[in-house]
Design a protein that fits this description.
With 1025 residues, this protein is mainly α. The protein contains 38 helices and four strands.
Length: 1025
């Protein structure tokens, strides 16, 4: 497979357009103003992953009836892939023994290719996230086959832990390194004359780089060992499904923290691939690899210390870790958290809260069953008051956590001293213009939310519907509280939310601060003030928990439902308002989405976690909520929203209004469409993921419901925020309006609420259409209740329409996060409709499923799917073009073409590769039987993986091809550009769409070919999914 890809890359390399590259490598723009002045001076790198290339084009396109030049390449590859697929499926038994090595080669190839493309065409704001997503999806895809190491350091560490056969180590490492080199040669040939090398990033030295490579390779291997190999996290009859998420997001933690120091390889296959392909600094590749192997060995040693039960004959059911083991776990968790925060600070990262949250999540998943994974004195306080900790353990935990924080602060102060922001002080004090009281209250509220989420997701009894004893979401929920709170209150207090982090920052600033740094008060005084508010937040969280989760203490629960709705909506609207004031364009929407997700996970088992009058109304219409409960729910939500908005406005002390309104140059009609559409999407996702019978079996409920619901905000927030403000919730709209200083303060809030209720009504009707079985008189599901073809086609139409419309709105508004938003839309709709139609939403995926030849989709269904997918894409493209014509990018041509400096053949090859990866992930994660050690039949990660492919591919190749990865998306962009093009410009010819779609469809065939090699057992022992 990769030999074919390499040959094709070499073949098209001669077709590069003779356009000069800018100083940053190449222009990654997809929206280029049609004005000559902007085109002349160039705009440099911008957020990768938008899904169309906009070009200033006044020349008349070629006659579209002409023979399509370059169309032969995808046809030849298609035929070769189809022939290889047929041969492989006919001789599956031959490849049985080589499947695991092929999986390692393929997974590592995808990872290193993504790294290279991100380095050469991406942007620092998203690169680490894209690479982390690539690692995560390939670990999930290849894990059941080979273990999903994809890294010689991981293989070595597992062998040192006694978790992997030493006889296979050389073969695994050879497959991984050769894949890394092959991938590097491919992306270098594709993107020539650019190359990526491995070296220390100035002004840091190679010793500094070596240290962070050791530390974060240690973290990566340690997380793998604990999440994917430890006995208690991987019981023989009850395996976990969070391992890939934890492993992948180590790259988010270390990528942003150490990327500005060492390049953040953490993998000899990456380091050697980059070094050997660059032809320079080859020795550094081997040096980096040595550092990484040291980190792997240290991880193995730490694993043996925190997991002694893995090396004893003690009964695991009765095993309780010793106090010293728990304290070591707490030390490691806090040290990695604070060091990650500090290195982000020392390198001037703008993604500190995101990186810190990832570090926290990975360590919680790794050590949660050892010490509880507190890593925060405020959390330990809340757990102690909840009655889950003894006094000696409480005191010991807090002491060790503070010690770890202080030591990590000392370590990162050395990097601050010589880093790019060494002239900037980072002190533990209120931000400029803020008082200690405001900073303290900000820390109090956000720390209380964090501690509350810990109590509600990690210390409660599992619901009766949960078959597995594993909790797949607790680490994700707890860490997301840091994302939500860090970005929301960072401009006031710094967003530490943790006395150990506060002590680390205080220690670091005491060890080094640039000359002339002014400080409000003393370091000790500020630390004591911050710690007081944070510990008070932990205490308050335990009190709120006793009210909302009274059932945990044997109390009545009828009032708890309304308390949950009020508290959850308070946190959501408070986070919305704080982010409006903070004004962080890149991360505000993600912060808000995380706040919704964590509160649904926290209060969902008690009240259902509606947190939105529109959601409650939609569920009542769908007979999933009793009408008599609706007034209480809505009242609680509105009260919570008003309080949350008022608190945020008081905290920031600003007089600017928070009221909702349509954004210029759009009209009220445009805002109404956006609010109705995305509120309908939100309510539809809630109904399908949290209330439908198939997704919520009484004896086997799902763990993904809140993840799907929360990320609707990522989809709609980036897409529609520039149109309507993206409220999607009457409690948000009315809450913001009530606290504004505008005249007629509540008019627009009420109007927005009406729009949102209309969206809720539409969602309830659509839910009835796709799930008629939920409205039968009996409670059970019969075998003949399976979806009919019309329902499957409706499902496919809805999914594609939502995806392409989301993409179109992002483009129309010049969003900096198109791939992230599109990925979220895809993930949410797959979780919602995966059990209806399979949720392909992509002709290339449908083709891959058909070509996999496992009777998952008939030819008739496949052809119908493809037709409906193309139709939905075209309709959505036409709809989004109306916003393009009226929006801020109306003078910009959005069309389907290649990136600046590249040819259409190169763009097609990039689409071919990325679409093949996406289709392969669908086959590997969504069409194979549940793992033998799963107690639940519910798949937590399948849609997360598929959506993450769009994040990885969109940001990696967006500057080259646009990153559509989907012929239906390409069709939508083409249709939209034909419907509206700015005066003086012309849309790309139809031949562009045909060529790119051909490459994408060919990627689907190649995916089926690769799947038949790595998952050969699916053809030897076929099973019903």
């Amino acid at each position: 497979m990769n030999c074919i890809a390499f040959a094709l890359v070499a073949a098209v390399s001669a077709e590069i357009d003779p356009v000069c590259l800018d100083a940053a490598g190449l222009s990654n723009l997809h929206l280029l103003q049609a004005s000559a002045s902007k085109a002349e001076r160039g705009l440099g790198l911008q957020s990768a992953g938008t899904v169309a290339q906009a070009a200033r084009s006044t020349a008349k396109p070629k006659n579209e009836s002409d023979l399509l030049p370059g169309f032969g390449d995808p046809v030849i590859v298609f035929l070769c892939s189809a022939l290889a697929l047929w041969l492989l499926q006919k001789s599956a038994a031959i490849f049985k023994e080589a499947a695991e090595f092929a999986a390692e080669f393929l997974g590592t190839f995808v990872l290193v290719f993504t790294v290279g493309c991100c380095v050469l065409t991406g942007t620092s704001s998203w690169n680490a996230t894209a690479i982390a997503c690539a690692l995560m999806v390939m670990v999930y895809a290849t894990g059941p086959i080979s273990g999903g190491h994809l890294n010689p350091a991981v293989t070595l560490s597992l062998a040192l832990c006694g978790k992997f056969d030493w006889a296979k180590v050389p073969v695994y490492c050879a497959a991984q390194v050769s894949a890394g080199v092959a991938a590097a040669l491919c992306y270098c040939t594709l993107l020539t004359p650019q190359v990526a090398s491995i070296e220390a990033v100035a002004p840091f030295q190679w010793t500094d780089a070596g240290f962070v490579e050791v530390i974060y390779t240690f973290m990566l291997c340690f997380v793998v060992n604990n999440c994917a190999a430890s006995k208690r996290n991987n019981a023989e009859d009850d395996g976990n499904q969070f391992f890939g998420l934890a492993i992948g997001f180590v790259i988010v933690a270390g990528g942003y923290a150490a990327g500005g120091i060492s390049g953040a390889a953490f993998n000899p296959a990456v380091a050697l691939g980059l070094a050997l392909s660059s032809g320079s600094n080859i020795g550094m590749g081997f040096t980096w690899s040595a550092f990484e192997l040291v980190g792997a060995a240290l991880a193995a040693g730490a694993f043996r210390l925190v997991r002694p039960e893995d090396y004893s004959s003690e009964d695991l059911a009765s095993y309780v870790p010793a106090l010293k083991t728990k304290l070591l776990a707490e030390f490691l968790g806090v040290f990695m958290l604070v060091l990650t925060v500090g290195l982000n600070i020392a390198t001037g990262s703008v993604c500190t809260a995101w990186s810190a949250a990832a570090a926290l999540m990975c360590m919680i998943y790794s050590l949660g069953d050892v010490s509880g994974g507190h890593f925060n004195p405020a959390v330990t306080t809340a757990v102690y008051l909840r009655g889950r900790s003894k006094v000696n353990e409480f005191v010991s935990y807090v002491s060790v956590q503070l010690l770890a924080g202080a030591l990590a602060g000392l370590v990162y102060s050395f990097f601050h001293r010589q880093g790019p922001v060494k002239e900037q002080a980072h002190l533990l004090q209120p931000s400029a213009g803020q008082t200690r009281l405001a900073a303290g209250l900000a820390e109090f509220v956000s720390t209380a939310v964090l501690a509350y989420v810990v109590l509600a997701t990690a210390t409660t009894k599992p619901p009766a519907s949960q078959r597995t004893k594993q909790n797949f979401f607790f680490g994700l929920a707890i860490a997301s509280a840091v994302t939500a709170g860090g970005f929301a209150v960072g401009p006031i207090s710094g967003g530490e939310l943790n006395p150990a982090v506060a002590l680390g920052i205080a220690t670091a600033s005491s060890a080094y601060s640039p000359a002339g740094s002014g400080m409000t008060g003393s370091t000790l005084t500020n630390f004591l003030i911050f710690a007081f508010y944070e510990l008070a937040g932990g205490c308050f969280a335990s009190l709120v928990f006793r009210v909302t989760h009274a059932g945990e203490f044997g109390g009545q629960t009828w009032l708890a439902k309304y308390a949950c709705e009020c508290a959850g909506t308070f946190v959501l609207v408070y986070t919305v308002a704080c982010n409006i004031f903070a004004g962080n364009e890149q991360w505000a929407v993600t912060s808000i989405a995380c706040s919704l997700m964590i509160m649904i996970y926290a209060v969902g088992p008690v009240s259902g976690g509606h947190l939105n009058p529109a959601v409650s109304f939609s569920l009542a219409l769908s007979k999933k909520l009793e009408w008599k409960q609706l007034p209480g729910y809505v009242t609680s939500q509105l009260v919570g929203g008003l309080c949350g908005s008022w608190c945020a406005a008081s905290l920031y002390g600003l007089s600017s209004p928070l009221h909702v309104n349509f954004k210029a140059p759009y009209s009220l009609g445009h805002a109404a469409v956006v609010e109705i559409f995305f509120t309908a999407m939100l309510c539809f996702v809630v109904s399908n993921c949290a209330a439908s019978k198939r997704n919520n079996d009484e004896k086997d409920g799902n763990n993904f419901f809140a993840l799907a619901i929360g990320f609707v905000i990522v989809a709609g927030g980036y897409a529609g925020g520039a149109v309507s403000g993206a409220a999607f919730n009457p409690a948000v709209a009315i809450g913001l309006d009530m606290t504004s200083h505008a005249q007629f303060f509540c008019t627009k809030g009420l109007l927005w609420g009406v729009f949102e209720l209309i969206g809720a009504f539409i969602a309830s009707r659509l839910f009835r259409l796709v799930r008629p079985e939920d409205f039968k008189d009996d409670n059970g599901l019969e075998d003949n209740d399976g979806p009919t073809l019309p329902r499957k086609l409706l499902s496919e139409f809805l999914g594609v329409f939502v995806l392409v419309f989301t993409v179109g709105l992002n483009l129309a508004n010049g969003s900096i996060a198109t791939a992230w938003s599109a990925a979220a839309a895809l993930m949410c709709m797959i979780y919602s409709l995966g059990d209806v139609s399979g949720a392909h939403f992509n002709p290339a995926v449908t083709l891959a499923v058909m070509c996999s030849n496992r009777d998952l989709l008939s030819r008739k269904e496949g052809l119908a799917f493809v037709a409906v997918q193309f139709a939905a894409g075209v309709f959505a493209g036409l709809a989004s073009s109306k916003f393009h014509a009226a929006g801020p990018q109306s003078s910009t041509l959005i069309t389907l073409t290649h990136g600046k400096g590249y040819s259409l053949s190169q763009a097609g090859l990039a689409e071919f590769f990325a679409t093949a990866v996406l289709s392969y992930i669908v086959l590997s994660c969504a069409t194979v039987p549940a793992a033998a050690n799963w107690k639940t039949k519910s798949n937590f990660y399948f849609a997360l993986c598929i959506g993450s492919c769009v994040t990885a591919g969109g940001f990696a190749i967006g500057g080259l091809s646009g990153g559509e990865l989907n012929p239906a998306v390409s069709a939508g962009i083409y249709a939209g550009s034909k419907h509206y093009s700015p005066e003086g410009t012309s849309a790309a010819p139809f031949s562009n769409f045909v060529k790119l779609a051909a490459w994408e469809l060919t990627g689907g065939v190649l995916a089926a070919t690769a799947f038949s090699i790595t998952h050969v057992r699916e053809y030897l022992t076929p099973q019903k999914v």
